[in-house]
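Q: A reviewer asked whether we had any structural model of the full assembly, not just the individual parts. We don't, so I'm hoping you can provide one. Inputs are below.
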Amino acid sequence: MNDKTMKTGKDKLIGVNMLRKEDERLLQGAGRFVDDCDDPRMVHLAIGRCPYPHARIKSIDVEAARAMPGVFAILTGADIRARTEPISVLRPLPGLLRHSYYAMAQDVARFEGEPVVAVAARDRYVAEDALEQIIIDYEPLPHVVDAERAAAADAPILHPELGTNVVVDNTLDAGDPTPLLEAADVVVEDRFQLGRVLGLPIETRGVVARYDRAAGMLDVVTSNQSPHLTRSQLAQSLRMPESQIRLSAGTIGGSFGNKLGLYPEEIIASLFAIDTGRPVKWIEDRMEHFRATVHGRESTHRIKIGASKDGTLIALDDDYFIDIGAYNGPWGPSVLASVTMPGPYNFSGFRARRRVVVTNKVPMGAYRGYGPPESNFVREVLIDRIARKLGMDPAELRKKNMVRKEQMPFTSKSGAIYDSGDYSRCLDLALDKLGYKEQRQRQAEARKQGRLVGIGMSCYVEHAGYSAASISRHTGRRFGTFESVTIRLDMSGQATVFTGIPNFGQSLETAFTQLAASGLGLSPSQVVVKPGDTLGTPQSVGAFGSRGTLAGAGAISKAAGEIRAKILRLAAHELRVSLESLDINDGIITSHEDKSIQLPVSEIAEMAILGMDLPQGDEPGLEATAYWTQPGPSFGFGAVVAMVEVDPKSGEFKLERFIVAHDCGTMLNPMLVEGQVAGGICQGLGATLMENIIYDPDSGQLVNGSMVDYMVMTAADMPKFELAHLESPSPVTPFGIKGVGESGVIGAAGAVANAVSDALSPYGIEINRIPILPETIWRALRAAEKKAA
Amino acid sequence: MSGTHRIKVTVNGKLYEAEVESRRLLVDFLRHELMLYGTHAGCEQGACGACTVQFDGRAIKSCLMLAIQADGHEITTVEGLAKDGVLHDVQEAFRNAHGLQCGFCTPGFLMVAAALGEEKKVLKGDALRKELAGNLCRCTGYANIVTAVETYLEKVGGAAQ
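A: Here is a predicted structure for the entire assembly that you could use as a starting point for your response.
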């Protein structure tokens, strides 16, 4: 950061483990989540969803439901078509710029869970009773719930106007890698499958909408990560000016990318609020959540990597399918799998072909990691196989090929610019923590006794925040790369930070308090953060892609620097001392010229706000609004080392050790950084060990769409993990911080898969899919034994 | 439509009399009639534990009970933990260990932990993790929750051992 305002603050709260500001109220159950908004006049929505994977809606009879006591209003797809526009696309797919969908199915429903009808009633119980009285005549249509099958010539076409289910076919490359691969000494290749998973925040989505007819104002509270973007989409769908919609997020009970952009329910609730004149509430129940909130990750890769005899990686060629579900949802499929495919390594040749396929499943969207966990798994598993083939140590092979510190900034073969880092040193941190050499010896001894012990590792880059260059205009994306804040001081000297970014557990209020208090010279108790509201905040993009804190830091530092400069100017004028002699600490202004000066900021704030005795040229008030755009991408790094022991009888395996060494640049608050990494690890291990959304190919039904059937990690499942940190400050961000929200999730699958394959190497069994289930291992072991016999 | 029943229930030390629909879930009654919003509904299937309250001193999931089943019983919700604005030891332990992020699952964990504390159980490690396995958290990775509960149980139960 070359902006001087960045350095004027004392920065003394940067790097401090400050306890969280959010906790006092959350610990007492006073979080004010969306379902905590009640009103005696409120009506409650229940949404009727298509029970088939693909069906024509022949008729909807709502008369019996409409006549029920306690039912206020009913909306069907015809109402939606007449009164709204399809959801506007924030992240268009290349070649499909305007393809979208309405808030309810029009004639044909394309996934189990697509909204078909909605009822507003006295309470949710009555609304669900009414849904049961609605008679819908469906004509089931042929369905397809597998991406590669959907891409076949004889598959049922979901969107006839597109003529194909393969809606995107684009390639990112550095020329054709085929000649390089043909010339390589070793080539490894496989087909990899990553299961369909979801973020599963413990708070589902929810909306409360109110309409003030006299003012023509719509007020929407919704559990959403990007209030300004979502308001813009809602305004477009409702054909209203944005200025007549207030959209706020309240407190959000987890999001993980799943609560980005506009969903149908915000539109539906708004229409009911306008129609009934009453506050309207919709809270997604958990069964709906599996069928109405985006899924993530599922993809199939055919990838090969070539290397020379000495272990030099030469070229990578990947051809993959993403199963996007029925529509390009609020955030669509990732592009970062292609961008991060080369990972932290030097390659000479590179190609990633991405095909995005529509199927009769819940739409896919952003989920923590969003591309990198996928690319990391397939690449890292193949790198271990190369090491096995060459008889090389996998750690040595990695270090040999890693981008070196002195090569930074480094442009990868996919075009990503790595700004800073010391990758091999970070890997060493993880290996040292394990005691790599000793554990390899232990492993060799265990193997002599017939025990299946394995060590695996994986290394990743974490793309943090968006730079303008990565969201160029020609892609048609409808969001910017900046963040913004307004900071306002009141007469008591308290600062309020207004931001459009909501708080969903990422500790936004604490992080922004540290940044603002540092920049202003106030104590943390003098700063209040008001997050996640379009009312009174400057235009904002939102929190996703590990960008919130780092983009916000730029805006806060600028705004705080401006205010601090004005406080000092006013103080110099009032105290008749030189500006240069003044400083502010914990809200007290001092001068090194006159040690007797101890002026509270509140006195200057009062003077500024009353507009009395101001120096010439200064206007009243102590507030500033600042925007900040990240000049370039920042990349974090991480190395994961896992050690497992597989039970040859059952195929079960235990994670004996799990170590993550990571580098997210300067740590603003190490306690929060570790919390983010730990949470990411848990979700990464969930997708590695158990999480998997299953659709039955014959019926097209979602088989395990409930919390009872879809397994996630509990405290008893979660293994102990160890963390190590390296801090390589980013040259392109304020204070050198990088994002960390997605770090922990990226490397888990690759490291565990490699450890299991290493353990099973006496049998020649190689892992090529997640989740890695004991049953899969058991079957592979039995097959290997049969073959040997 | 279902009928209604008159119930008397003590919540956080206060006696309430209410006319409730027989099908109304206890979690909905606590939240939307008594305005005790700290008890959260995460799955309504007894899988996530966000709705955990103490029912006659035992941790139970309030989405698996009807409000009418609480007639004549005593319930403690998360709002009943702090006294006179001073956080309960278990809440303090969670704050100090960074045992919460979004805070949605937190009341459920607090109620389970507080019930263990009242039984003076000093649990650690895997044994404690088993006790906490009925509650899901998607943010923290559990380690800090386990640390918080260990610290709390040691503090309240240490003397009894």
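A: Points you may want to mention in the reply: Chain A touches chain B through 60 residues (CB under 8 Å). Residues 472 and 520 of chain A are 34 Å apart (CA to CA).
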